Amino acid sequence: MADDPAPSLPGKGLGKGLGGASGGASGAGFDAVILAGGRARRLGGADKPALTVGGRPLVEHVVAAVSGAGAIVVAGPERRPMTGVVYVREEPPGSGPVPALAAALPHVTSGWVVLLAGDLPFMGAGHVAALLRAAREAGGGAVLLDDGGREQWLAGAWPADELKAGLAAYDGRSLRGLLAPLVRVRLTLPGRPWFDCDTMDDLEEARMNVLHEWTILACKELGVDPARVDRDQILDLTKEVAHGVARPAAPLTAYLLGLAQGAGTAPEDAVARLATLAKNWSRATEETLTDD
To answer: How many whole angstroms separate alpha carbon 194 and alpha carbon 215?
Structure first.
């Protein structure tokens, strides 16, 4: 099958569940393979899927996105047990995505398989459902496109029999070479589900995006205008307090600042004054002890 005839479709019918469990693919009759090995050279050899975003390892974000799968197979080391997850290793370990996929596919028994990378912090159950729906409607493989129109071969849904047959006949090393002939549809979806964390800058961007979303939702819940929240200023303050005073003092300081601002008693330069106090904490406590 040639690459050219495969259409590129925008996401459709994603509904309010996009990115969350309520719109997921539970009961959709599919298995999932997550490739979570690799050497992460651009991250200095760090265990990339174990790095955290929003307080949760990246691989666990991806596992949550495929929670409706009949089987979830993670090709990579077992960092910590996850309910319903089967771990496999490619031979030899670190030999690449194609051997990792080959190690995982014997555990796939459903007619469809979702193949994902283990470092996709923005992939949600709704995205998985949309990929499966597009693949089924097209009668073949569906691959996700990034914002530059490039195929993301570790973000797709595939007919399991075609994938197994293609792998059995393939002697190359690249996923593109294996998967491109199986593509029937190329899909664009909102929310950057294709975003992976290859570098420290990527990881920091993912972490800051979580903070942004949390700020918006928390402000909505509290009836606060998000435009009034200088997130970076507050983060700088709490970092200064955590380092200069004590880690538990950081959230307490943010709470006290909020109380003072809500009561209208905080000076205009309250954040700057608190940051200065934290920087000079040791000297300030010494002077207090001397005064006593």
So the answer is: 23
CA 222 – CA 229 distance, rounded (Å): 12
pLDDT in tens, 75-112: 988 887 788 899 999 888 888 899 999 999 999 999 99
* Alpha-carbon dihedral sign for residues 194, 199, 200, 201: negative
Mean local confidence (pLDDT), 16-44: 59
Cα 144 to its chain centre, rounded Å, is: 15
Residue 184 to residue 137: CA distance in whole angstroms: 10
Q: Which two tokens stand for residue 37?
A: 């090995």
pLDDT at 11: 57
* H or E segment and range at residue 137: helix 125-138
Residue 235 contacts residue 250 (beta carbons within 8 Å): no
Query: What's 136's DSSP letter?
Result: H
